[in-house]
Amino acid sequence: MDEILEILQKDARIAPQEIAKMTKSKLSDVKKKIRRYEKEGMILGYKAIINKEVVDVKGSEVRALIEVKVAPQKDLGFDKVAERIYGFPEVVSCYLLSGGYDLLLVVEGKDLKTVARFVAEKLSPMEHVRGTVTHFLLKKYKEDGMNLKSKEEDKRLAISY
């Protein structure tokens, strides 16, 4: 991968001037490359990784990982089914997998019932969906390469033998 892309992937807030210094490139060349990467769809966007364990979020959403078994469509494979599934607003991410299940979804809802309703009313009844397994995320320790620290200290007593 291009050095500029690697730098931006680690920290999208780094200014083009700093990237030019880091890569020993001209500032104009760095800016040109970044614009080209954005135009060609190599850079899709920029985002902040928010540690929701630390931020007091009222009505914080529930996240679930859902494994989906799919019957691929003739001459279309998994793509058309995946396209219909990732079109739902509840689906944050959708991946094609190897192994026992075909797709892995990251789904968000305001509570457990919302996610359960999505699976029962929208996902499972779909024509090419053959089965699902839902795993609710209980706690995040690391996301997108960033270690997440929780707000509260662990107050459990140490056990010694």
Describe this protein's structure.
With 161 residues, the protein is α+β, with helices and mostly antiparallel strands. The chain has two domains: 3-39; 62-138, Lrp/AsnC effector binding domain/regulation of amino acid metabolism (RAM) domain (Alpha-Beta Plaits, 2-Layer Sandwich), CATH 3.30.70.920. 30% of the residues lie in helices and 21% in strands. The strands form two sheets. Strands 2-3-1-4 form a four-stranded antiparallel β-sheet. Strands 5-6 form a two-stranded antiparallel sheet. A hairpin with a 2-residue loop joins β5 and β6. α2 (16-23) crosses α3 (27-39).
Rg measurement, Å: 21 Å
Summing up helix and strand content along with how strands pair, one would put the structural category as alpha+beta
Shape: flat
Question: Roughly what fraction of the amino acids lie in strands?
Answer: 15-25%
DSSP, total strands: 6
CATH class of the largest domain: Alpha Beta
**Low-confidence residue ranges:** none
Any idea of the CATH topology of the largest domain? Answer: Alpha-Beta Plaits
Total of DSSP H or I helical runs spanning 4+ residues: 5
Q: Would you tell me the overall average pLDDT?
A: 90
Oligomer: single chain
CATH 2nd-level architecture of the largest domain: 2-Layer Sandwich
Strand arrangement across the biggest beta sheet: 2-3-1-4
Distance between the termini: 50 Å
The arrangement of helices and strands along the chain is: HHHEHEEHEEE
Number of domains: 2
Helix content: 25-40%
Structure at a glance:
This protein has two domains: 3-39; 62-138, Lrp/AsnC effector binding domain/regulation of amino acid metabolism (RAM) domain (Alpha-Beta Plaits, 2-Layer Sandwich). The protein contains five helices and six strands. It has helices at residues 3-10, 16-23, 27-39, 79-86, 112-123, and strands at residues 62-70, 91-96, 103-109, 129-136, 142-143, 146-147.
